[in-house]
Amino acid sequence: MRRALGGLTTRGRSFVAAGATAIVCAFVLGERDLLRAGVLVLALPLLCTLAVSRTRYRLACARRLDPPRLPVGRESRVDLRLENVSRLPSGLLMVEDRVPYALGGRARFVLDRIEPHGRRELGYRIRSDVRGRYRVGPLTVRLADPFGMVELVRSFSLSDTLTVTPAIVALPTGRLSGAWTGGGDSIARAVSAAGEDDVTPREYRYGDDLRRVHWRSTARHGELMVRREEQHFQSSGTLFLDTRRSAHWGDGPGGSFEQAVSATASVGVHLVRTGMNLRYVTDMGETLPATPSEGAFEGLLLDALAVARRSSSRSLSAGVTALRAGAGGAREGDGLVVAVFGVLSRDEARAVAATRRGAGTSVAVLVEGQHARNAATGDEPAAESAAGLLRAGGWRVVTVRTAAELAGAWGRAGRTGEDFVKGGA
After folding, report:
1. Which of 87, 200, 227, 283 is the most exposed place for a label (fewest CB within 10 A)?
2. What is the pLDDT of residue 418?
């Protein structure tokens, strides 16, 4: 009852104050008619409070986000289903779904009545121009009496998460020349060179094709042995993002960091969908290891980039170590490296260039700011200085100012021998 009294609306409090005042004046003036009017005015909000507090509605709520993950600037639809699972009809309900301000604010609905075991379908749209992970819900229901004297708030515990990913730029189809390197233990070459007798067999496993039984090895070992099936080559690579605060300029969607995140997402999605097995590395070290499932890694990468923030680190040492581990053979098959940087100093560019070894393809995407200058000279654009050092180390370099320019630069960067592409005006 105390909670219900706390739910009195402005109208309800006004009736209580007016009724109490009338009763006091009736005693002072000795007016019985005024006393009767005061009791009536005071009793009305109290009776409404008692009625609402005694209400025992049993409501069920379900919510669906379509889609639950979307790029910035796109809309998602929220579908709500509110069901009255009790045997009593509901009264006036004010339904409010809590939505973060970045998604457009709260969604409110007024339902006049829900019959026993009836349901109501509600829907609204949300969108965000800022990437991130947002909590939608829980749903709150305000119970009110017909006179508007009292409101009680009841909340569900159910909430859902909407993930707003960076903007993705569609890149030209095709593969980077020299980027596909093989992995696995295929023995096709050994078979063609030495004949079937030199094939290294293994023990039979349940489900193996009996046509692959190697009878000579079976006779030699006394148990069923089968030929090792040829394994397909799996292309793999590394995707790198420089998140250092000191390497990026500007704030908001137009800043270099947001453009770098968008470029990283675009390249990652493009490479994964072409069948490449990627791992994701930042200046803090490896963030996401390679995942065999194409769809799983794409989702994990977009989720990680949706909440990516600038780091306070001022050094690339951890990231360079991770890149060197991939290029140096600690991870077999890391033939392709695509790294997205902000502003690089000469020393940092030399350290990054030294990570390339062997015949693997390395591509650097430099997100250049209009006012980025080399700290050493003060006049040469830092991106051009870093690009020269990276080219000298065998890297292909793409310089852009916005992620939208990456689509035109990517196709030219894929051609053999083209090391530097200048994007923008």
Report:
1. 87
2. 44
The vertex-53 CA angle with 158 and 151, nearest 5°, equals 70
- Burial class of residue 189, CB neighbours in 10 A (0-12, 13-18, 19+): exposed
Q: 90 — phi, psi (to 5°)?
A: -85, 160
How far is residue 271's CA from residue 234's CA, in Å, rounded to a whole number? 13
Mean pLDDT across the chain? 79
Q: Are 246 and 372 in contact (CB under 8 A)?
A: no
Binning pLDDT at 50, 70 and 90, where does residue 145 land? confident
Q: How many residues does the chain have?
A: 425
Residue 393 lies in a domain: yes
For 346-364, b where at least 16 C-beta lie within 10 A, e where not — what string? bebbebbbebbeeebbbbb
CA distances from 187 to 191, 197, 213, 236, 334 (A): 6, 12, 16, 20, 20
Tell whether 290 and 344 lie within a shared domain.
yes
Question: Are 59 and 122 a contacting pair, CB within 8 Å?
Answer: no
Residue 215 predicted with pLDDT over 70? yes
CATH number at residue 361: 3.40.50.410
DSSP 127-196: E-SS-EEEEE--EEEEEE-TTS-BEEEEE----EEEEEEPP-PPPPSS--TT-----S---HHHHHHH-G
Mean per-residue pLDDT for 141-152? 78
The partner residues of 400 in beta bridges, in order of sequence, read 367
The Cα 64–Cα 120 span in angstroms is 14
Q: Which of 35, 53, 71 is the last residue of a domain?
A: 53
The range of the structural domain enclosing residue 24 comes to: 2-53
Q: Could you read off the pLDDT of 329-356 as tens digits, one per residue? A: 444 444 789 999 988 888 999 999 888 8
Tell whether 124 and 143 lie within a shared domain: yes
pTM of the model: 0.71
